[in-house]
Design brief:
Two copies of one chain form a homodimer. Chain A has 328 residues and is an alpha+beta fold. Chain A is 43% helix and 19% strand. Among the domains of chain A are: 86 residues, Hypothetical Oxidoreductase Yiak, Chain: A, domain 1 (Orthogonal Bundle); 130 residues, Malate/L-lactate/L-sulpholactate dehydrogenase, NADPH binding domain (Ribosomal Protein S8, Chain: A, domain 1, 2-Layer Sandwich), CATH 3.30.1370.60.
């Protein structure tokens, strides 16, 4: 059963819960904004349901140390995340890259030693809304076997790009793994087989058994080319300060780039041209019997805008009850 | 029949041929270096066989005007390619981005109005050999239908990344189309059907008939995710100065980014970590019965190095004969 909850209530619920688990209020506010956004975007699993697992992480790892900038120029910053939650470090890092790009034309930021940061599109969209082009890549604990291999070497390794446009940002974000680790865990918990082609067992044989996949590896998406993109994300994460291969207790790396299109052309002309590209794609003919052709990320953007205008989201009652119970 | 030819002879053959077709000698030298590299890399089709089609383009379009920098800062340049061959403009643009990054930490270069530029890895590798991280994307004439669509809106849209490493650059480059336009033409000329799943006809139905594909569209690679990468390349090309959608006589756009890892960390540490990633991937266990796990681009790099040491390549005798005949 789902229940309707106002956006400010949902945010407050998340802030309260996280503060009770030791997170400083300004950090809790950043996480809460992201979780509400995830509901608006239609990714309910990435919203308030993330709070209990996050609390478990906070109990296990603590709230982290002091985030510090280790190296800085007019166009770059290298930040030690000090084990603080990625929703916080990535918000700070993207905003830093935006500020640098507004000042210097380009902003490049690396963040080492953080953890899970949610939806990458949330960050790059901030840059595009500030009329900047953005690239963000994030590596993480090795769970994915590169193309042709058995051993877990890469993280789920998502990458995201955003471009400002007359028509609202063009945002492309995707993971370079066939599926998420959490999704395999979910299938295991529910006793369901995985779809075919996502995972291998410890001997490298294809498997649909979640337990065998957890002992083996998830496959890189997209064959050799997709696995190559996974390698790019791994390398950009290394540039962000990660270990070469991130072991269970290893250091993750995040990379952010913001870039002012005015370096190359008038911003208005750039935004008009990106808008024209998106308009042409949306107006193009679908394959026979197929749905309308979509611009990547556009459906999500529209959902978020509509949700903000509406002012409420629907959240699983059981989730709200568990968060309330944790308050006592 | 193939015949052995020394690298300097192959280069001279290309330079002579291009100069006879009106290309200035310094431009011809840049193209020739690239074509010899293509042979070394094992992509013979992208080597001397490209000269005759290039001559046809030069006859049709001329050798282009004067390449000019329209906008420049300490970290960026926007260049009008003036219709000059892409092998030339991309070499100049990548070298400009490298020079800017060496001076300012970051170099961002856009090139508008150029044409075919060969192998993208050739350019980004130059940056990685100079200890820089590089990204290069190139859009072109619309031939590819984005995911779910029929209409040709995107170019073949390749993208390339390179990272310096202790072990030689890590280079990842790939096109975001299932196949190349030239490959469809080749199948048509030879009367061969295309492999399945690459193309659609003018009504959007799957086809293996090259003529139907040429009247229809080539498909984007990698489903929705791959098509999203194609959109990213299109948008980066727009940032490089292209039209939003590039019609037959439209303007292409190239985007180059070079970035000094020293902005974020000591270069030696970065190179060591990228080297460690590659070593771990190469040492990982392959799937049962499969070949050794490969680092993207590494086989090509080794082939090029071996070929340079050897000092010769093998070229189709018919190609050499046709180039010699064109001299009279």
């Amino acid at each position: 059963m789902k229940t309707r909850i106002r956006l400010d209530e949902a945010r407050e619920t998340a802030v309260d819960f996280l503060c009770r688990h030791g997170m400083p209020p300004e950090h809790a506010g950043m996480v809460a904004d992201h979780l509400v956004y995830a509901h608006l975007a239609g990714h309910d699993y990435a919203g308030l349901p993330r709070l209990q697992p996050m609390a478990a992480m906070l109990r296990e790892r603590g709230t982290g140390g002091t985030i510090r900038t280790l190296r800085e120029t007019d166009q770059s910053a290298f930040i030690d995340g000090a084990g603080v939650n990625g929703y916080v470090t990535s918000t700070l890092a993207m905003d830093k890259a935006i500020a640098l790009a507004k000042k210097s034309g380009v902003g490049i930021v690396g963040v080492r030693d953080s953890w899970f940061s949610g939806l990458l599109r949330y960050y790059v969209e901030r840059a595009a809304e500030a009329d900047l082009v953005a690239l963000h890549a994030a590596n993480s604990t090795a769970r994915i076997a590169p193309y042709g291999g058995i051993d877990r070497l890469l993280g789920t390794n998502p990458i995201a790009f955003a471009f400002p446009s007359d028509d609202g940002p063009l945002v492309v974000d995707f993971a370079t793994a066939t599926t998420m680790w959490g999704d395999v865990l979910l299938h295991q918990r529910r006793g369901l087989p995985l779809p075919e082609g996502l995972a291998i067992d410890a001997q490298g044989m294809p498997t649909v058994d979640p337990a065998a996949a957890l002992a083996g590896a998830i496959l890189a998406w997209g064959g050799a080319r997709g696995s190559g993109v996974g390698m790019v994300v791994q390398a950009l994460g290394i540039l962000g300060g990660s270990d070469p291969i991130v072991a269970e207790d290893g250091v993750w790396g995040y990379f952010f780039l913001a870039l002012d299109p005015a370096l190359l052309m008038p911003v208005d002309a750039f935004k008009r041209n990106i808008g024209a590209l998106c308009t042409r794609v949306e107006a193009s003919r679908p394959v026979p019997g197929g749905p309308p052709v979509r611009v990547p990320g556009a459906a999500t953007r529209h959902k978020v805008a509509q949700g903000r205008a509406r002012g409420w989201i629907e959240v699983d009652e059981a989730i709200l009850a568990s968060l309330a119970a944790a308050a006592h």
